[in-house]
Write a structure and sequence with these properties.
Endonuclease, Chain A, two-stranded antiparallel sheet, alpha+beta, 2 domains, 11 helices, 264 residues, 8-stranded mixed beta sheet, Arc Repressor Mutant, subunit A
Amino acid sequence: MNKIGEVLEHFSFTKFESEIYLAILTLGKPSVTQIANKIGKNRTAVYFHLKNLLEKRVVREAREGRRFRFVAVPPRELAASFDRWTTDFKSLVPQLESLERVEQEVPIIEVTESKRGYLKAYDEISSLPIGSVFCVMEGRDALKGEFGLLTQDEWGTFFARIVERKILTKILFTEEALAHTPPMKSLNKENKDRLRQRLWDVRMLPEASLPIQHLMCLYGNKVTFFLLETKLVVTITHKGIVDTMRATFDALFAFAKHHPDPWG
């Protein structure tokens, strides 16, 4: 219970509020008096903190006759709220980082192993501000191995966030990638449905014009390369570099052939 209280305190619960929330979960649908008896606190003090929990929408009020009782928001629903709050904060990180940038920005280069690097990059992409756009270039080898790198649950979290936050994906495939690799083969039905719900602008160029095999993502002030054969992920953070690469991407994208349904 102490560990649970510590975690809740990281999400703006006071120690008193954590005790009340856990007591309500344990008791089911208690009155103020029952909560006070459970945690050994003064009834007036409990009612004061209950009002804060009601305002935070983690406790709900139910009336039975002339008595008020209280119901705790289910832990799974509370966890979903925590996830949304965390994601919303992450979307502000680029703005916060811009406040501390020196005038002459030095590129930051990170190299991580593929699994950890994938999770980090996809977490950052799915935490972009609502209505954002990120750009992808992908070749045959990358598309063949990409969906096997994360678990179905991890893909589900990524797809759900992308859909919820209405993030548009502009993706440039090689024609050979789509012709030889069924993109959704390794996904379960639920994730296939989520993939179709995403906002897409998908285009293609022949491999002769776009001789790539890797996966590259442009988002915010970052460009990330996923190198499957070496199991490495390389991320460069630098506005000037990313602006140049985005201009190159946009030029290629403008001449590429539109694909109406790559997941069909």
